[in-house]
Amino acid sequence: MIDICLLGTGGMMPLHYRWLTALFVRYNGRNTLIDCGEGTQIALRKKGWSPKPVDVILFTHYHADHISGLPGMLLSMANADRTEPVHLYGPKGLARVVGSLRVITPDLPFELVCHELNEAVETFPYPGEEEMTVTAFRVSHSVTTYGYSLSLSRKGRFDPEAAAGLGLPKPMWGRLQHGETVEYEGKTYTPDLVMGDSRKGLKITYVTDTRPCPSIVENAAGSDLFICEGMYGEPDSEDKAREHRHMTFDEAAKLAANAGVKEMWLTHYSPSMTHPDQYMDRVKKIFPEAKAGKDGKSIVMRFDDEDEE
Amino acid sequence: MIDICLLGTGGMMPLHYRWLTALFVRYNGRNTLIDCGEGTQIALRKKGWSPKPVDVILFTHYHADHISGLPGMLLSMANADRTEPVHLYGPKGLARVVGSLRVITPDLPFELVCHELNEAVETFPYPGEEEMTVTAFRVSHSVTTYGYSLSLSRKGRFDPEAAAGLGLPKPMWGRLQHGETVEYEGKTYTPDLVMGDSRKGLKITYVTDTRPCPSIVENAAGSDLFICEGMYGEPDSEDKAREHRHMTFDEAAKLAANAGVKEMWLTHYSPSMTHPDQYMDRVKKIFPEAKAGKDGKSIVMRFDDEDEE
Question: Choosing from A65, A209, A224, A295, which is the catalytic residue?
Fold first, then answer.
């Protein structure tokens, strides 16, 4: 299972009733933050969580409302006595930007590992979690900006009858089930002998600060949850969205429909939009599983039949 | 009159129920901010004020909880179409620190004028307000840190009988009253001929992130309002205060008593202190006019007999 929390839903400037857009993802004791604007650490703390266990921060781009909270977040992690390294990912320039911002937090008791993205699409393993992969894909904003997909793979089902048929002692079954090749009485046994085909995993895609573009549809395809910016909800706001390199709710809903995602949450609202909910009837006509994100909106995502296991 | 608002009262880290310590001072259409930690722009906006008209920002020092909100604040000022210059004051290194933080707000439609403080005590005129002077004085923290006094002078009372006795036409009286020297029928008339001795003005002193030290007593002397850090309220917390280069409530109250100030507000509370009020009975025994500052606590300060004019 993956635990998701949309910490904030605001764009441009933090408001006292709406934190800046950021996503928190918890899986298997590893914690990921996507973007870290001013106040993100407050939103995290309000949720009852500490900034200490943030292992990975993915940055979409370096406009202030997406990274201005980094120095304070790092300081709070330091004050919470974190010592494990923190991995940062973001467009080219990451080390320079982070280095500059650290002028006010020069001494940290943990290592910051900066990974800069250079290609249009890059897929890499999540640090320390072999079942999780991250795909970063370039989108279309006024500066270089990436969207992210987090994909959790799922092994096939273990077949105890097949294992019994091999004549292996039962204590060795678990090693095969966990992907290990086993030697026993001169013979070699591989995991595929006891494991079914890999099953459907989980996929979350996060996209903000962009115009609609083909890479979003390609990379969000088949997501269980698609979190997408919608700066403007009002009808006829497409010109404004185009001018500021953002999206309307309708444009986001069309992307969701085209990518065949299961569910979409809108976020990154313009400060002038006080009630995003009011536009959802129209949006749901384009994509019925669209939801207006709210600060603190959470979901626990499970594999299809995870409860049965 | 001067309008004062303590925007936040927290130290170290911003909390959703307590913004980081910062002071907002409004006088004659000019607006001053002392310190700008993460979330200060939100506190300002919550109060119903825009960041646009901030003319001067005074920094006590460059620990993240006192300056981490600067990039977001500048961005919000830019988004509000500010074009007038903003004057920044702070310890040596100001231009370097501000320059580094601006990596995420490189383009601003207004000029930032950095004034670095080098001496133990520096007094300078407030930009554009001749009645107001600022005194910056070095205090005692783990890094170079300054306290600030804002002093508003007040001219003497105008004496209409003296003016009449000079034989000057009445339309010229106002020029003398406003400090101008006037020539009339070959004679020179100076303002002191019609103005009484200058009267008591107003003085506000702001001190945070320091141990008690003589410069605080010297420079806070006679303040109408003394805003002072009190990181720890619990009895017997002096060792902890000394270790972290901060103050207890009691130490702050002793400074207030020694400096002969009219009123003191405590601020910059440790995140572990949820109810500063509970320690105030003891503190008031040391200095009766001590108040526990609260986020948004405001006061309009007037000259002694200002309402009579």
Answer: A65
- Are the C-beta atoms of B110 and B183 separated by less than 8 Å? no
Q: Find residue B252's DSSP bridge partners.
A: none
Is B197 noted as a catalytic residue in this protein? no
ipTM of the modeled complex? 0.90
Domain spans in chain A, listed from the N-terminal domain onward? 2-155+198-302, 156-197
B37, B71, B79: residue with CB nearest A12:
B79
What are the tens digits of pLDDT across the range A84-133? 999 999 999 999 999 999 999 999 999 999 999 999 999 999 999 989 99
Is A100 within 8 Å of chain B by CB? Answer: yes
pLDDT of B307 reads: 63
Neighbour tally for B21: CB within 10 Å: 29
pTM value is: 0.92
pLDDT tens track for A228-269: 999 999 989 999 999 999 999 999 999 999 999 999 999 999
- Could you please state the CATH topology (level 3) that the domain comprising A2-155+198-302 is classified under: Metallo-beta-lactamase; Chain A (3.60.15)
Tell me the one-letter amino acid at A299: I
Cα separation, B68 vs B144, in Å, equals 17
- Domain B2-155+198-296 sits in CATH at 3.60.15.10
H, E, C per residue of B94-137: HHHHHHHHHHHCCCCCCCEEEEEECCCEEEEEECCEEEEEEEEE
How many whole angstroms from its chain centre is CA A23?
Answer: 7
